[in-house]
Design a protein that fits this description.
By secondary structure, this protein is of the alpha+beta class.
Length: about 170
């Protein structure tokens, strides 16, 4: 028996062509990427972040990064199937992304960019769920469209009230 064990210990290493191949890189298709500000609470306030919506190996994910970060993981990673809502929130350039019981409040550089983010997230939600991509883009009873011009004027009057808007988002 000892001879058999010694014989196994003395086997030459396998040839390199039989070694396990390196795993193939996971393909990443960026759907939308850009700078946003994220509300981090009253102590930290608004923080500059990079938001990326992408298809990673067939799964659509929403990732939050530090500005300039090129890593794969980021600060937060959410499968689009975890997103429960995405809608304009408070100030016209802000949007709220519901993930489970958590609400993430983001601010885009403009109302138009805010609308683009909402449309991209909602479109990918619908695509992943197999829902039609045209027509009303409402998600869970919330319209994802940016406020109409009359509503935008009313919202613009509250733009200087950052703390009040953030408090409403925390509720």
């Amino acid at each position: 028996m000892e001879a058999a064990v010694d014989a196994l210990d003395n086997l030459p290493p396998p040839p390199e062509d039989l070694a396990a191949p390196a795993p193939a890189p996971v393909p990443v298709q960026v759907i939308k990427i850009g700078p946003v500000r994220k509300w981090a609470g009253y102590l930290k306030g608004w923080q500059d972040r990079q938001l990326r919506l992408s298809n990673v190996g067939g799964q659509v994910v929403l990732q939050v990064f530090l500005p300039g970060d090129t890593g794969d993981a980021g600060l937060s990673l959410f499968a689009i199937s975890q997103v429960t809502s995405c809608k304009q929130s408070g100030k016209a350039s802000r949007f709220d992304v519901g993930v489970g019981v958590e609400n993430l409040l983001f601010e885009a550089a403009s109302v138009a960019l805010c609308a683009e983010w909402i449309a991209a997230i909602v479109r990918e939600q619908r695509r992943v769920r197999g829902e039609p991509l045209d027509g009303d883009m409402a998600v869970n009873g919330h319209s994802s469209a940016v406020a109409a011009p009359a509503e935008t004027d009313a919202l613009a009057a509250t733009e200087g009230d950052d703390e009040g808007d953030a408090a409403a988002a925390d509720d």
